[in-house]
Design goal:
The complex is a heterodimer.
Chain A (H helix, E strand, L loop, with lengths): L3 H8 L1 H39 L3 E4 L13 E2 L2 H6 L4 E15 L4 E9 L13 E4 L8 E5 L9 E4 L2 E9 L10 E5 H9 L3 H9 L11 E2 L1 E6 L5 H11 L4 E3 H12 L1 H32 L1 H9 L4 H30 L11 H28 L9
Chain B lengths: L3 E12 L6 E12 L3 E5 L6 H8 L7 E6 L2 E5 L7 H8 E4 L11 H11 L4 H14 L15 H14 L4 E5 L7 H18 L2 E5 L11 E6 L2 E5 L9
Parallel strand pairs in B: 3-8, 3-9, 6-7, 7-8
Antiparallel strand pairs in B: 1-2, 1-4, 4-5, 9-10
Helix pairs in contact in B: 3-4, 3-5, 4-5
């Protein structure tokens, strides 16, 4: 039996492929959009996963440093440490920095931690060059995507920092590259006032700010084996400090609270793109059907059943959708690495899009089918 | 075996209604027998194509009866919902232009209808090759219609009309796009087909030179169909 769709596509192969490529690029953008969302989720969890902290003790009545400004006294770690079940507790800071590189300023998030303690936010698996921080001052470990090389010196604040290590794939919840500095340097950068400010404070009769207790953005703690993390968290809440979050609660804050709006925005944008793609496929199929109306009328006139002509339309539409999906995948895989923020392309998303596009293609073919059903065979010979 | 291929009784066709009513055919009565090549003539707009399309189960008449062979297909209404099946199995169409399907090659165009009727591909292709050979275009079997001349395409179109072994061929000005030499060739070919394959052919034409090759002339006069003999200088093939 002659396959009309196959013959028609063969006849207009170039045009069909170019059309599929065009729609495919649109679908590629859809996949990239989904990948951006997935990337946001992954980015949000990188630091949390690398820290391996079980508990987050943050400024009271706040959600913690990822969500809002949070400051606690560093010595709170000592009080936390004596709570039953707590294995270790350390102070940690997070702050945005603008590093001056040779080409352009780079925005990063600096993680300040005690390099001599055992809770280390630098995941050894991500360290691709150099070493961990070994000193209290003026060393920095940078992410490989900000352009600094091992041994390079970077001016930050009033001091010069030396790059001692380079990591890969380390980003903040907002997608900015991470750098790591010692807690003391971080405290100085974040909490120390300039000489002018200190003089100004003194003139106002404010107590000498340089003698203030050291602050951190949060205390992170690990829980001893055999202890329930939630129970230890409750214990801290009841006896010491009420704003305590477990690692899972921090993840929820990151994924549900912080990137929820962004993900909704991307989700809406993706949905619109899918609808636009469907409309474009429908328009293409409609145009392709219109171009064949004379042939369709002739076929109806010589007795070819509607089912055979409709099969041609549906097969062409499905093939167009399928090829567009393949091209979309190729396109997205070709370009995703060029995006400045992480784009995660997952097979499950591709399959979901495949199903959506196939359903959309079938819906789009209905327009062509309606045209076929209404085609007047007498039109073949001009009435 | 009955000779009747087409029989039309009191066939009426009106378009529109009320003030815009157009009466095209008013009570047509005629019969065409198997093996006959009949010319259908009338001035432009008189309803030749409409009559052809009614016989071809494409255009619904307003009233009357149409027999194709012994089968009554229209009796003030279509007696079957599958007019397209009737067209596919009993009728071959030839048009002014060849109207081949441009994305099918010659042999695919010729075998499309038989294959749709359930004839196995090999059998349909073998018969199609016989037809193409008959029309001297067997060497073009795998060419696209765009690669053929107008005359060659028209011969393919005739082969397509014959491929389903029809009882009736309805030809709507099949020679209009051809020069006189090719026109004569096509009409002689139709006459030979009518005789050889016992097919009834109604051919709409404006070309009086073609009439001598026909067995009879049907003329639409005053919205009626009147049968005439052919001119005396009829050429026998």
């Amino acid at each position: 039996m002659i396959n009309l769709a196959q013959k028609d596509i063969k006849h207009t192969f170039g045009k069909f492929i170019v059309t599929a490529m065009g729609v495919g690029m649109l679908l590629g953008i859809v996949l990239i959009m989904i990948g951006v969302y997935r990337g946001m989720i992954v980015d949000a969890k990188v630091l949390l996963d690398d820290l391996k902290a079980d508990l987050w003790i943050v400024q009271e009545d706040t959600l913690g440093p990822f969500a809002e400004s949070s400051r606690v006294h560093e010595d709170l770690k000592n009080s936390v440490h004596v709570i039953d079940g707590v294995k270790k507790s350390v102070g940690i800071t997070f702050q945005n920095l603008q590093l001056i590189s040779k080409t352009k300023p780079v925005r990063v998030v600096a993680v300040g931690f005690d390099p001599y303690d055992t809770i280390n936010p630098i995941n050894p698996a991500r360290l691709v060059e150099g070493d961990m921080l070994r000193k209290d001052h003026y060393e920095i470990v940078v992410s490989d995507n900000i352009g600094f090389k091992l041994g390079e010196e970077i001016p930050i604040g009033r001091n010069i920092y030396k790059v001692v290590g380079v990591t890969h794939g380390t980003v903040s919840s907002g997608g900015d590259p991470l750098v790591y500095i010692s807690l003391k340097d971080a405290q100085e950068l974040q909490f120390s006032y300039s000489n002018n400010r200190i003089r100004s404070d003194r003139a106002r009769g404010i107590k000498d700010s340089t003698t203030n207790m050291p602050m951190v953005n949060a205390i992170i703690a690990t829980v001893r084996l055999g202890y329930d993390i939630d129970s230890v968290a409750n214990n801290i809440r009841q006896t010491l400090h009420k704003s305590v979050y477990t690692k899972d609660e921090q993840k929820d804050i990151l994924t549900k609270n912080l990137i929820e709006r962004a993900s909704k925005q991307i989700g809406l944008f993706t949905a619109i793109l899918v609808v636009v793609s469907t409309i474009i496929i429908a328009l293409i199929i409609y145009t392709m059907t219109l171009e064949k109306m004379k042939e369709i009328s002739i076929m109806k006139l010589i007795g070819i059943p509607n089912s055979m002509i409709m099969k041609m339309i549906v097969q062409e539409t499905l093939l167009l959708g399928f090829l567009a999906f393949i091209f979309g995948n190729l396109f997205s895989h070709l370009i995703y690495g060029r995006f400045p923020k992480r784009v995660v392309l997952e097979i499950s998303d591709a399959w979901m899009l495949f199903i959506i596009i196939m359903v959309a293609s079938i819906l789009a073919s209905l327009i062509g089918i309606k045209k076929v059903i209404n085609a007047d065979p007498a039109a073949a010979i001009g009435g | 075996m009955a000779k009747q291929a087409i029989k039309v009784e009191n066939l009426v066709k009106h378009f529109g209604k009320g003030d815009s009513l157009v009466r095209v055919i008013e009570g047509a009565n005629f019969q065409v027998d198997k093996g006959e090549l009949v010319a259908l003539i009338a001035p432009s707009g008189a309803g030749k194509t409409t009559l052809l399309m009614m016989i071809g189960c494409v255009e619904e008449p307003t009233s009357g009866k149409i027999y194709l062979g012994d089968e009554l297909v229209y009796d003030n209404r279509w007696l079957t919902k599958e007019q397209r099946k009737i067209r596919r199995e009993k009728i071959g169409f030839i048009f002014q232009a060849h109207y081949l399907i441009p994305f099918l090659n010659v042999i695919e165009n010729v075998t499309l209808v038989p294959q749709t009727n359930g004839v196995p591909q090999k059998e349909a292709e073998a018969f199609a090759m016989e037809l193409l050979d008959y029309f001297d275009i067997a060497d073009k079997a795998h060419n696209m219609s765009s690669e053929l001349s107008g005359g060659q395409n028209q011969r393919v179109a005739i082969a397509r009309a014959l491929a389903n072994k029809p009882q009736i061929i309805l030809a709507d000005e099949p020679t209009a796009a051809l020069d006189s030499e090719r026109s004569v060739s096509v009409v002689k070919m139709l006459k030979k087909i009518a005789m050889d394959q016992d097919v009834a052919i109604i051919m709409v034409t404006h070309d009086e030179d073609m009439l001598p090759f026909c067995d009879r002339i049907l003329k639409i006069e005053n919205k009626k169909v009147v049968s005439h003999d052919v001119p005396k200088n009829k050429d026998v093939i």
